[in-house]
């Protein structure tokens, strides 16, 4: 029988939920109501501008995304949690991005797929709640359903949505995952977080493809994360040179954010790099056959893009490196690939390498002529 009978009991339970969350490895737990009217307007304007690109699922679920009770009937509160995932210091990431032959993978994807780990912890949290309340209505989510997780986390006091659209915490930066428990328990809510971006525009300025078209407005169709992960077809040619050596996602807007000086390295072993994915050469990962790809991305979020898009992305990155005979040789070896998508990007990369070779020859001839004079 439930021991939760009145408002005082609910206040006690809310305190306990936060403590249990910390014990389960979350860095913060907050509680929000379900009023997402402002976020709903922002989402609709974003969709109206077609900024979602091919992510049709953003349309499909209608108002379920912004009205939690439509997704999970009876929901009156959302328990929002965050978990740090930063696997290495920022210097190491800057070094990898600056090395043109390094394969840069967004740091959230270097370790075990976070969905399963966080969902498991949320279930344990729900189990603890149920011991006190008896059976109650709930459903746990980890980026797995139409949920406005950032807006909910902002309402729950976990941080504010920055100009790059990521959630920022004053004491922890933005290198963290989010998860939610929708519940019918009328728990006391936390005050929302205040915005502290001020006049800073560093994330807008650093974005390699200028995807942050205005503060708080991201055109996903230009975003490197969308282009390398969500987009199934051909990457627009005008954007390929801007992708650099990023083969899965992009962290630039987080790396430049001044609030991330407060970010802490993760204590979760599962979020640390597997198979040296934070220090791989482009030629190394381009040489993987499909079985090697599947083996070395087992349990990783990377596997979701599949082998074909993996090769597509690396071909673009190889087209962006300075002229290198070994890159040309590796690209030519992929011209016989069964996928037209892969071959298209390989041909583009070879054309880029050819142009760079000619530029290098012209430059050498110019220097030689100037020296002889």
From TrEMBL:
In terms of InterPro entries, this protein maps to: 4Fe4S_Fe-S-bd (IPR017896), 4Fe4S_Fe_S_CS (IPR017900), QueG (IPR004453), QueG_DUF1730 (IPR013542)
Primary localisation category = cytoplasm
Any idea where the 4Fe-4S ferredoxin-type domain is? 185-217
User: Where does the sequence pass through the membrane?
Assistant: none
- Which of this chain's residues are annotated to bind [4Fe-4S] cluster 2? 207, 223, 250, 253
Reactions listed under catalytic activity: epoxyqueuosine(34) in tRNA + AH2 = queuosine(34) in tRNA + A + H2O
Describe cofactor binding as the record notes it: Binds 2 [4Fe-4S] clusters per monomer.
Specify the enzyme's EC class, one word.
Answer: oxidoreductase
**Gene3D superfamilies in the record, alphabetically?**
3.30.70.20
Q: Which GO terms describe its cellular component?
A: cytoplasm
Residues reported to bind [4Fe-4S] cluster 1: 197, 200, 203, 257
Catalytic residue positions: 143 (proton donor)
> Does the record carry NADP as a key word?
no
Pfam families, per this entry?
A: Fer4_16, QueG_DUF1730
Co-factor requirement? [4Fe-4S] cluster; cob(II)alamin
Q: Name one GO molecular function term.
A: epoxyqueuosine reductase activity
Pathway field: tRNA modification; tRNA-queuosine biosynthesis
Please name the PROSITE patterns in this protein's record: 4FE4S_FER_1, 4FE4S_FER_2
> What family does this belong to?
Belongs to the QueG family.
Q: What HAMAP family does the record tag this protein with?
A: QueG
Matching NCBIfam families: tRNA epoxyqueuosine(34) reductase QueG (TIGR00276)
Assembly behavior: Monomer.
- Role of this protein: Catalyzes the conversion of epoxyqueuosine (oQ) to queuosine (Q), which is a hypermodified base found in the wobble positions of tRNA(Asp), tRNA(Asn), tRNA(His) and tRNA(Tyr).
Spell out the PANTHER family in the cross-references.
Answer: EPOXYQUEUOSINE REDUCTASE
Protein name, per record: Epoxyqueuosine reductase
